[in-house]
Amino acid sequence: MTFADLESEIVRQTRRRQMYSGLAVLIVAAVLIAGFDVSNSMNSGSFWTGLGQFFDYPAGLLSEAWETGLIGMAELMWRFLPALIETLNIAVAATLLGGLGASVLSLAATPNLGAPAWLRLPLRRVLDVMRAFPELIIALFLIFVLGTSPVPAMIAVAFHTVGALGKLFSEVNENIDVKPMEGLASSGASWFQRIRYGVIPQVAPNWLSYFLLRLEINVRASAILGFVGAGGIGTELRRTIGWGQGSGDETIALFVLLIVSIFLIDQLSSWGRARLAGRQGQGEETSAQTAHGHENRVARVRAMVRRRTALTVLAPALALGYLAYAWVAFDVTGLIASARPERAAILATDSVMYKTHVEESLRTGEVEVAIEGERTATYAPDALPDWVRVDGETWDVDLGDGWRVTLDGPRMTVEAPGYGTIRVTAQERELLYDLPAGPQPDWLRTDPVKFDMRPEIGKRVQASRAKFEIHRYHWGWENFWFPFRSPLWGMSAGEVWSLAWSPDRLDPAMSNAAFIFDQVWTNPDWMHGEVFKALLETIMMALLGTLVAAFVGLPLAFLAAANFTPSLALRFGVRRLFDLLRGIDMLIWSLIFIRAFGLGPLTGALAIAFTDTGSLGKLFSEALENVDDKQIEGVHSTGASQLQRYRFGVLPQILPVFLSQALYYLESNTRSATVIGALGAGGIGLMLVETMRTSRDWENTLYIIVLTILVVFAMDALSGWLRRRLIQGHEAREV
Amino acid sequence: MLIKIESLTKRFGTATAVDAAEIRVEKPAMIGIIGRSGAGKSTLLRMINRLTPATSGRILVDGTDVLTLKGAALRRWRRDCAMIFQQFNLVPRLDVVTNVMLGRLNGHSALASAFNVFSEADVRQALAHLDRLGIAEHALKRAEALSGGQQQRVAIARALMQDPKFVLADEPIASLDPLNAQVVMDALRRIHVEQGLSVICNLHTLDTARRYCDRVIGMRAGRIVFDGPAELLTEAMAREIYGAGAEFSEATTSTSLATPFPSEAGRRAVPVTG
């Protein structure tokens, strides 16, 4: 390459880089403005009116608290202490269990530790899925099966913790020195012993540090899940907030308890992590300097060995004891006894099957065939499904596999293969039976007033003195594309496709393609349009919240960094602001913003933005304090202005941290947005909670769950991909 | 203990690292294996300890082919042939005495290992070994806080803790300065003399082998090209082993205290005449 070529290449690259930077700035600005505009219009209350009311709610709460007085507030807090302890127990038990699972799985999932590939590779995927799976869904599902209790929240948080910690732990494992393991192998140590002495001592400090960090996060997660019915302080908060005026003092008492405990746990955890980090550097803290006698030395070493044995026995014993306490505190025994696993079975079948009712009213003698027994999905008498036949007054229903039911006025006949013919006659006072000889099978119930048989999950026949009812189950989601009443109902995909291109309009007002789309979009059973709007809202919350947090957090971070802001007072102020934003926590922010701005993505976005301005600001300021001064000095020495020094001396250094952290938060905020939504901010989370609460059609719930998981996974993948692209890109070519 | 290695071979893909090696050890001896980097010395030693699986051949020890051992018997065999590594392979964050006691893991149950249980006898023996190697005063320091030479002595103490039948040392002095190299080689020699154990030691310098070993095995490109008493190792033979031309001189492979070069530099340096 000649010098001229090189020169033109460099010029070209510089231009391209400028264009990219400009483009990036434009895109971010466009997303921010459009996002704000869209969220604002989607929100039930507007931003500008909400802003005026922002302080109304906290002020109302505070004035009620003021009236209660200091002693009254202290009493309230004392009263709520058990709820707080329950939330803390959920967090600690979940972190312990999750940490345990993560340790085992991460050891088996790391390539250099000797686990076979067939185990390792699937395990990595399992960890990814566990990490990305929204906690809310697990918690709601378990609450449905187990009933209201702290255990569902504990399991949900523990599940996510296994995934999140497992990933971090395996990164630690990958970076260890494997030579000690080889040394132990050469002396005849077993695989377990090699891991125990060759790996654990190396990874323990980092593992513990991540464990403590996770504990901080889990306290918050447990409080939030309480709000959807998992017990603890969140449940209390929902109650006091639900009561509205008059319980403001209680709400404030709960807020204070939560903020103080989160603050304390954060402090404790960062103190612990700082100690761990400090210890790594040292190495000579214990040394036997002076030449003692041999016996003396033996005694000292024995004491050390005994102390260490005691410690290694004590730590798991304490953890085990704590879990036993949690077992009792959460009343797991009672919970197992009162659990309703059949609800899980119902949920499982109902979410992948639908049933068609054939119902005869014995008062009128009329027979109706309807999907899910719904009036809007009743078959016309001349268009019955092919497994129902009418012959005068006689209805012949084929349940498949040779099972057949005949309805003839007050008489019902069931052909049961392998058993015989069952005859049921409804009379004024009771049901009369004519059963085949031999023992009665256990799927059959014949009371004088109630007949019920369910030989298989897909067939059910019931009778009372008022009606006969036959359910035939079919696999799949009924009316998923088109509603029953739609002219498109029952068409095959090919028919729909050719119809879309046909010039003969079904609806003169719009083209066929538009009509088809409209029929799907407004399907009243599945509400595809509503669901997608809710998904969009959730994504908006995460995206907008994270963007605002990142771009507000960055400039503030300069004010909190010692090497950029000499003023101690200013630095102190900004740092406490970060602590406050983080410490108040997403849960409380959401509750305040829901009051001020109503339902909608704007509310969720603001809650995320407020909390994460604190978290990201803190992270960025730490990154800023670690920048290399020499680079800045170099730029300074060329006569650059302050702004230029920041742009070329500082920004290239912190950009990788900025991008990776912002993207990492985006990914975790997509999960948070579903939870905040469930608290009442709207979006897919709220929709999920509502369909679960009505629990009428589980296939709708499953549909929403599947979409939510897909969105969370997609955001996870997108953020991971972007992170790799951008950061590697920046390593290859400087900014 | 009779060790009979028969046509032991290791192939990595198409490359042959060790080609049909035949070695017999009938009485305790200090054996030095010499050769250039990549001659197959390490692979040979690692195959004996079974850290690297052999492609074919047999290693008969008192009549048993150790290449067929599995599970507990394999771990027992590894304990019998203690190994010392170029990079010491200690657990850096554990203290010295625990590192030494780890040599006893083979006799310990999983439960005892899980909870850091070591007996008084273990402690006494570990300290006795450290004392004999002159590093007992460091017993409670972390292994990573020690110098290279000290760490290698800890590794030797761990090897002795295994109560081995013989000792394999894979380039034990390649990462050490000449003074520490001498201390470590002296210690290995003493193990052979005092405890009557066979010590098989990979060295890539000729003079160390001459000085410490009774018997020298020379390897070149995976083949054993010399096997005999150190005195019989002529300069012509050494040229053959190191694959050098007429300009070869023993000084180029020296690590003795007299030469100004540290071991690594010395090996790569241009020949010094004289």
Write a compact overview of the structure shown.
The complex is a heterodimer of chains A (735) and B (274). Chain A has helices spanning 3-42, 47-53, 56-109, 117-132, 135-146, 150-174, 179-186, 191-230, 233-243, 248-281, 294-329, 332-338, 341-352, 493-501, 512-521, 528-560, 568-597, 601-625, 629-637, 642-681, 683-694, 698-732, and strands at residues 353-361, 367-371, 388-391, 394-400, 403-408, 411-416, 420-426, 431-434, 444-446, 451-456, 459-463, 467-475. Chain A is α+β, with helices and mostly antiparallel strands and 735 residues long.
Multimeric state: heterodimer
Gross morphology of chain B:
globular
Could you tell me the CATH topology label of the largest domain in chain A: MetI-like fold
Query: Count the strands of chain B?
Result: 10
Shape of chain A: globular
Low-confidence stretches of chain A: 280-291, 731-735
Helix proportion of chain B:
25-40%
Round the mean pLDDT of chain B to the nearest integer and report it.
Answer: 85
- Biggest sheet of chain B: strands, sense, closure? 6 strands, mixed
Topology as H/E string of chain B?
A: EEEHEEHEHHHHEHEHEEHH
Q: Could you name the CATH class of the largest domain in chain A?
A: Mainly Alpha
Provide an overview of this structure.
Chain A has 3 domains: 58-288 and 295-341, MetI-like fold (Orthogonal Bundle), CATH 1.10.3720; 355-475, no CATH class; 527-734, MetI-like (MetI-like fold, Orthogonal Bundle). Helices cover 69% and strands 10% of the residues of chain A. In chain A, the strands form 2 sheets. Chain A has a 6-stranded antiparallel sheet. The model of chain A is unreliable at 280-291 and 731-735 (pLDDT under 50). Chain A is α+β, with helices and mostly antiparallel strands. Chain A has helices at 3-42, 47-53, 56-109, 117-132, 135-146, 150-174, 179-186, 191-230, 233-243, 248-281, 294-329, 332-338, 341-352, 493-501, 512-521, 528-560, 568-597, 601-625, 629-637, 642-681, 683-694, 698-732, and strands at residues 353-361, 367-371, 388-391, 394-400, 403-408, 411-416, 420-426, 431-434, 444-446, 451-456, 459-463, 467-475. Chain A starts with a helix and ends with a helix. The radius of gyration of chain A is 32 Å and the shape is globular. By secondary structure, chain B is α/β, with parallel strands linked by helices. Chain B has one domain (3-91, 163-268): P-loop containing nucleotide triphosphate hydrolases (Rossmann fold, 3-Layer(aba) Sandwich), CATH 3.40.50. Chain B has 10 helices and 10 strands. Chain B has a 6-stranded mixed sheet, with helices on both faces. In chain B, strands 2-1-4-5 form a 4-stranded antiparallel sheet, covered by helices on one side. In chain B, a hairpin with a 2-residue loop joins strand 1 (3-12) and strand 2. In chain B, helix 5 crosses helix 6 and helix 6 runs parallel beside helix 7. The interface between A and B is large, with 41 and 53 residues.
